[in-house]
Amino acid sequence: MGKITKILGAILVVVIVVTIVLYFVASRYLTPERIKAFIVPPLEEATGLKVSIGDIKRAGLFGVKVNQVKFLDPVVKKDVISADELRLSLKLSPLLKGKLVVSEVAFIRPYIFVIREKDGSINLTKYFAPEETAPTQETPPAQKEPAKLALIFQSIKIEAAKIKFVDQKKELPPAEGTFSLNGGLKLEGTSLVFTGDGQLNVKVDKYPLVEDLRFNALVRGKENQIKLVGGKILKGKVLGEIVLNEEKIKGLIRLSQASFKEGENLAKVLKPYLFPEAEIPALDGGFDVEITLAGTISKPIVESSVYPKPLKIYQKPYTIVAEGEIKASVEEVLPKINLTVNGEKFSINGKVSLKEALPRADLLISAQKLNLKALIPEGEKEAPEKPSQPEEKRVSQKKKASLVLPITGKIRFKAEEVCYQVCAKDARAEIVLNKERLDLKNFSFFLAGALAQVNGNVTNLSDTPKIKFAYSLAGADLPTLAQSFFSKSDYFASGKVWTEGAFSALGIEAEAVKKTLTGQGNARFMQLGLKENNITSLVAQVLRIEELKALKFDQGKLNYAVANGWVNVKGKFSREGLLLNLTGRVGLDGRLDLIPRLLFSGKYASLFAKNFPGASLFRTQKGYEVPLSIAGTLEKPKVSLKEVEEKVKEKVKEKAVKEIFKLLGQ
After folding, report:
1. Distance from CA of residue 538 to its chain's centroid?
2. Cβ atoms within 10 Å of 470's Cβ, excluding its own
3. What is the pLDDT of residues 198-243, one digit of tens each?
4. Cα–Cα distance for residue pair 198/177, rounded to 1 Å
5. How far is CA 635 from the centre of its chain?
6. 586: part of which helix (H) or strand (E)?
7. Element at 372 (helix H, strand E)
8. Above 50 in pLDDT, residue 10?
9. Regarding predicted confidence, which is higher, 50 or 225?
10. Reduced to 3 states, what is the DSSP secondary structure of residue 610?
């Protein structure tokens, strides 16, 4: 027991002696001037910034604590990076050989200031961007100076770092972040190898965009590797890996179960800076994102895929649900999306090229059955005429309603059935897009059993849009056509119609189009059958011919012109014993101002002569010609005889002349 005590005592004496000697060596070697000479010049040479440090104090046996480390811009004299404290722990054995080897370095509460200058540049890029130098011949490994590797950091720690972004142009929102890093730096051969892990949080104008993003880092020679192992962006989980090898870059980042609601919150933060005039819709649902990196650092190739699961957009009067996939790169966007708008389902496929000054689209919109009425705001379906408004308010509404399409290309449309008030089968169309113009080409569909075609364009998109189109319809079933366009219509029992025409109008809303609509066209009819309706009933009642309540014409033709809210018509319809010449106008609001002239012969002449008192007033060489006047509205028409007084006066005058000649004996 006594021997053991002596041995332990001897060991303790040796430890105390060695500790005192090492402390003496360290005290003599670690002077503030020598530490400053080791730290400041390499940092200034590496960054181009002026480095200043505060008090240097001993910390423990082989430790150093430096207060207030600052990296200043030598021109503007502003802090770029600063830290409250820098702690160094030194390795024991190199001190005995006169070398400073840092076994551990810790930056305590560093601050990094990222500033976007008024010219749009970022302050840090000019300090840390690699300088372009002419290629030089590499020094053989044997000739490298190993002394430069004497100052190495075997352990690096960044604690509670803060990053602050300020935009002096005031185009981007302020941002701030917190950052921590814990790693080690060691020498493998002639290469330094850094390994570590860290954590990052980012707030954009107080919105938590990146939360607890954790990563592992590996730097070995020219290869840099970062693994994302956890954390959230827009409440979605983040995983991935990025590898940099010299100039080459490769990576894959996945964001899963992110929240569109958080995207709405972020949009509200960015709105004052990026899109102040936009209206932010309410969003809901989740999405996944996959981002791949390739190419080089100077010319990276970034491709991303977004998977809405689903995206829900609420903005009165629309409810939109989107599901599918959107692939995007710097050159193109490839959507493959299924959409539901107010319950109506259709899909969008194709691509949008980003290679030109304006994006160029080549998209296909397809559907099985699409009800266009569901896509039109309620206020525009049957918009009542609004009272006049002050000029200032009208101008603001005009600006709000303006359309600007910063895109070119074409959109093709295909649907098995498209309905508004009329349902069309097998609809196919192509819309050509320009910045200030939309061209409707090759729009064809089956309407009431016949092929219809529409061609036209919409111009002045950024001002008051001007609509102009031409149409043709060959052999449509008239009763089906009329009942489709006018749901309350019950005028036609049979008939085929061939028609074509052209129209133009200003505006987008239904009321504006109705007021400015102009156009002209013609129609031809075969076997036109009229059911008994308000107008025919009144005509039959006035002329006392029951057979006029329901008519059938063998053929007919009609020319029309639209202007100032009225459709001016001129036509002729005929069958055996009956000829109808029609002139006048019909208002787009349903008002009537028509003058039909009926020419009776054969059977109809006999009925008119028998049933109508004073039929002789309307007798001509070809039969009986009866002019009528139709006023009122389609729902409440008014029918009356026209030129009756003139006819009576003419007959009275004729009879008086005959009586005078008879009296004179001639």
Report:
1. 55
2. 16
3. 999 999 999 999 999 999 998 887 788 999 999 999 999 999 999 9
4. 13
5. 44
6. strand 578-587
7. none
8. no
9. 225
10. helix
DSSP 17-57: HHHHHHHHHHHHH--HHHHHHHHHHHHHHHHSSEEE---EE
Give the Cα separation of 162 and 150 in Å (integer).
30
Report residue 60 as tokens.
Answer: 């423990």
Rg (CA), the chain: 44
- Distance from C-alpha of 172 to C-alpha of 28, rounded to nearest angstrom: 53
DSSP output for 509-534: SHHHHHHH-EEEEEEEEEEEEE---H
The pair phi, psi for residue 486, each rounded to 5°, is -125, 100
The pair of structure tokens assigned to 544 is 């006392």
- Whole-number Å distance between alpha carbons of 269 and 277: 13
pTM of the model: 0.70
Please tell me the number of Cα atoms within 13 Å of 87 on its side-chain side: 16
The answer to whether 522 and 560 are in contact (CB under 8 A) is yes
- Mean local confidence (pLDDT), 249-269: 93
- The residues spanned by each domain of the chain are 18-124+148-172, 437-663
Residue with tokens 């509205």: 633
Burial of 172: CB neighbours in 10 Å, binned 0-12, 13-18, 19+: middle
Distance (Å, whole) CA 519 – CA 516: 10
Phi/psi of residue 206, each to 5°? Answer: 75, 0
Distance of CA 324 to the CA centre of its chain: 16
Please state, in angstroms and rounded to a whole number, the distance separating the CA atoms of residues 164 and 175. 6
CA neighbor of 522 nearest in space, from 456, 586, 457, 567: 567
